[in-house]
Design a protein that fits this description.
The protein has 2 domains: 192 residues, Multidrug efflux transporter AcrB transmembrane fold (Up-down Bundle), CATH 1.20.1640; 248 residues, no CATH class. It is built from 10 helices and 20 strands.
């Protein structure tokens, strides 16, 4: 029986050690000549890493509109056909209303979430429509900034006449991803799928905008002329193309990058741009034209030295607590300390892979979760000393601690559903800390402390 107990303790200890190495150190593999940690990094909040402040204001500028002799709008570059022109505000007064301001804010939030950004702060001035957006600073920030204020106006136009053939109203969904060509190369693609009405329009376009051949009657020379369309986003050309055959499924596939001509980094950049394009088009066109008025990096008020000092202090207190357990409870104190280290490792891993944004309040929640787990273990050991039965001692300690955990869990859930980032971070961390504490103590701590 004693051998079985030793084997069980040894096995659990090895599991805890392995878990701790993965969580505290990481798993490193060789990638392109350097060692890279494949364990996901923490998602730190803006109060710890700094953030980008973006002022997105209603565009109050004017633009010059040119007309031909028939009164049709023509391209600004086609000056030879200009019959008249006028200065016109980019935003008509009729669209500058509170309802459109709120709709714009909602669209921006949808775009951010589609781009995978969960940590952000957005404020709307309902009087003038100006928006202040705070987002974390990382490698994708500049791409987000360059596109977040885009109106998202999608058009398919005749290349020669600029006649609008299709708009956002014809879209169903836009998807981006990797694909493989018939030659075996990897490509980044954007699939634009049209709705029922758009599918019929697109079918007609693919039959109209094709290559036509003409023959010179005098020389007999054959020439090919392409009747082309241009896809535009906010007036800027995405691509100009024509069609070789009729398309009936209502899907237009665009290739925006290929492994045959691009590096892995360029392919990833192409995929990011393709995903952001889909985020713009999938979440609707903003009713108002906006512009970036300010783009500023705001450094964290919490210095890295202070965080390091806070971490060192927490480790010191934890060490003192474990030394106390070892001195007072001997063997069971050692096993309890091993279990506590394993709990911390498990909690930190879960926080990484649940993409929880860890703010200063999140750090407080981590400390509180560890403290509650420590108190649970102390109560188990105290009850065991009185009852001389670890099973009953454990059950009694869990029941007592539940009276503390249940109210905290309720508060955590309330905070987790709050839109404020600091309460969201505190609530989600506490929720996972409590859930893992209960599960971990029932499985690991209990197994370590049982007599057989």
């Amino acid at each position: 029986m004693k051998i079985n107990k030793i084997l069980k303790i040894t096995l659990i200890t090895l599991v805890v050690i392995l878990l701790s190495i993965i969580s505290f150190v990481g798993i490193y593999v060789k990638d392109k000549g350097r060692m890279v940690n494949i364990i996901k990094d923490y998602n730190l909040g803006m109060d710890l890493e700094g953030y980008r402040r973006i002022d997105i204001n209603v565009d109050t500028s004017k633009e010059k509109i040119n007309y031909d002799e028939e009164g049709k709008v023509i391209a600004s570059t086609d000056t030879t056909k200009v019959a008249s022109s006028e200065e016109k505000a980019k935003n008509d007064e009729s669209v500058l209303v509170k309802e459109n301001y709120k709709q714009t804010k909602t669209i921006i939030e949808k775009r951010l979430k589609t781009m995978g950004l969960s940590a952000y702060e957005i404020r709307l001035n309902e009087e003038n429509g100006d928006i202040v957006l705070n987002i974390p600073e990382d490698e994708n920030t500049d791409v987000i900034v360059s596109q977040i204020a885009s109106q998202g106006k999608f058009e398919v136009v005749d290349k020669d006449t600029s006649e609008v053939l299709m708009t956002n109203d014809d879209l169903k969904s836009v998807k981006a991803g990797y694909g493989t060509t018939s030659y075996g190369t990897t490509t980044v693609f954007v699939n634009i799928e049209f709705n029922k009405e758009g599918t019929e329009k697109f079918r007609n376009i693919t039959n109209t905008y094709v290559a036509t051949k003409t023959t010179n009657e005098e020389t007999g020379e054959e020439t090919t002329k392409n009747k082309e369309i241009t896809l535009k986003l906010d007036g800027g050309a995405i691509i100009t193309t024509h069609f070789e055959e009729e398309v009936t499924n209502g899907v237009l596939q665009l290739s925006v990058g290929s492994s045959s001509s691009s590096s892995a980094e360029e392919m990833q950049a192409s995929l990011t741009n393709a995903n952001n394009l889909s985020a713009l088009l999938n979440n609707g066109k903003m009713p108002i034209i906006y512009e970036i008025a300010n783009n500023q990096y705001i450094a964290s008020e919490v210095e890295s030295d202070n965080i390091a000092l806070f971490g060192a202090l927490a480790i010191l207190i934890l060490t003192i607590g474990m030394v106390y357990l070892i001195i007072k409870y001997k063997e069971k104190g050692i096993l309890s300390s091993i279990s506590l280290i394993g709990y911390i490792a498990a909690l930190l891993l879960v926080l990484r892979y649940t993409n929880i944004v860890i703010t200063i309040y999140g750090l407080v929640a981590i400390i509180l979760s560890i403290f509650v787990t420590y108190i649970t273990i102390v109560k188990v050991l105290e009850n065991n000393k009185k009852m001389e039965n670890i099973e009953r001692a454990f059950e009694k300690a869990i029941l007592r601690i539940m009276f503390i955990l249940v109210p905290i869990a309720v508060i955590a859930v309330v905070f987790a559903f709050n839109s404020w980032l600091w309460t969201f971070s505190f609530g989600t961390v506490i929720f996972w800390g409590i859930a893992i504490s209960l599960l971990y103590n029932v499985i690991i701590t209990r197994a370590l402390l049982l007599e057989n």
